[in-house]
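ERR on first pass: missing label on line 2. Operator R.T. fixed the label and resubmitted. Corrected input:
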Amino acid sequence: MNSAASEPALIGIDWGTTSLRAFLIAADGTLLDKAASSEGILHVPDRDFEAVFDRCVGRWMEKRRLPVLASGMITSRNGWIETPYAQAPLSVDDLARALVGFTTNRGTEVHFVTGVATEHTSGPDVMRGEETQIIGASGLDMSDGDFVLPGTHSKWVRVSGGRIVNFATFMTGEIFAALLDHTILGTLAVKGPFLRKGFDLGVAAGVRDGASLLHDLFHARTLPLMGRIEGGMVADYVSGMLIGAEIAAAKARGDATSEITLIGRSDLADRYEVALHAAGIGTKRAPDDIVAGGHLRIARSAGLIA
Amino acid sequence: MNSAASEPALIGIDWGTTSLRAFLIAADGTLLDKAASSEGILHVPDRDFEAVFDRCVGRWMEKRRLPVLASGMITSRNGWIETPYAQAPLSVDDLARALVGFTTNRGTEVHFVTGVATEHTSGPDVMRGEETQIIGASGLDMSDGDFVLPGTHSKWVRVSGGRIVNFATFMTGEIFAALLDHTILGTLAVKGPFLRKGFDLGVAAGVRDGASLLHDLFHARTLPLMGRIEGGMVADYVSGMLIGAEIAAAKARGDATSEITLIGRSDLADRYEVALHAAGIGTKRAPDDIVAGGHLRIARSAGLIA
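pass 2 clean. output:
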């Protein structure tokens, strides 16, 4: 591994709302080093993004400057610089052409991967950061297909012919938190370990024909009130119902095909796996750190590395 | 009006979570006096319900004791006494038979109207207090039909053959508040007067075939982000979408017939009227204070007044 291919060639940064992950990447894709920080864009002291940048990746450029790609909410209105959205459908080359350059006060050039927009009949949709993960995943053996990125705002992304053709956002994670913390549904919920039975009941309720969240969520109150489920199951029941409703809506949109690639290694992704299987949809899992593969592919297409 | 029919015959109390309304009722239904308090069951100092009771209605019993009926969340777990639910379908006579008597420390007999439960394929549903309003409304020229009581938890109630045959709860109001106050949807919302255009757009989105709240709510972020609706419309857009989704779900359940009787005189009831009309459903409005009519009918059936 002393070949030139394993020399540092690129720094990739995935800078989100609540955290930052950085990668020192060789030309062959080997990850030579990693860094992580909780200084997401909402937690950058004095909005001094360059100081966070220097702390996280500065040591990797002590010998020589490296090209830097940054993706994620860092390009949003509350980020370091705001970049316009590129319009789907788009390929890795389109994303490379849309890179927005920026020179830091210390003279380092940072190439920002811009976010992506699409248009549904119901209205516009946007993402920042997920497109780079998808480009990373689609550089593996998973070039075409449907991808789900569970999270605060989960994303369903369709890749076809090597292009991101469309995607949809579901506010599932954020709505779950608001319901449990700020409505009556939290009052009968008892904190505890994950209870699969509560989750499964919730998924079944969420995917049911004729399901209606505004009504069905009330059962997360009536069922424990009548002693039919335990308080320890309430949160898992609500979680299952919301994820089930998300899957049912994606199916109705034609986005839930026979197999989904799940991106992310969180407990949440495990829950999506369970729920997708219950809905008769197969899953595979993308490896960790695929976002760095996305940085590499976009940088290559932009001619930033050999 | 000096006839015996206009003498005080009954005290009716509608005692909810956040407020209390009391009525001094004549045998012919005339309302001789009213009282109101913000001491709903969650705001009763030291849980001394009898003190609140005495302050609100004590003066009406200085000359002589009167029968007292109380309905609402006052019979819930956090209320004065907890009563079991009566099972729908039920009539005014069934509610009269299910009254739960209670003698206060000062020796006043209070008859509590118990709440009502029903069973959907999706799970159990419950209400406390709305049944008395419905009994009041159905004593007018609106005996049979579909009733909607907008609120934190709005209720759709079907009355047929003089009986409450079933009902469904929608957590619309509470979920609206949680979304605006505790998710990203609040950040682009600008407080201001009601903007009908934003509300109408939201209703259209909510009743749309293939609508999905978890996805569509994200448009309350993307539309103002892209300058397509003003920040001042965001809250009305979300409100319209939720009420629209509630109406669509009620339609799918078969609960939204050609005409709905709206109960309540709030701004919220006005919004439901607009949304129901947009969905092609006619409305009429129940008069104020119909709950007192419910108290009277139940008391009569129970033989508490002549």
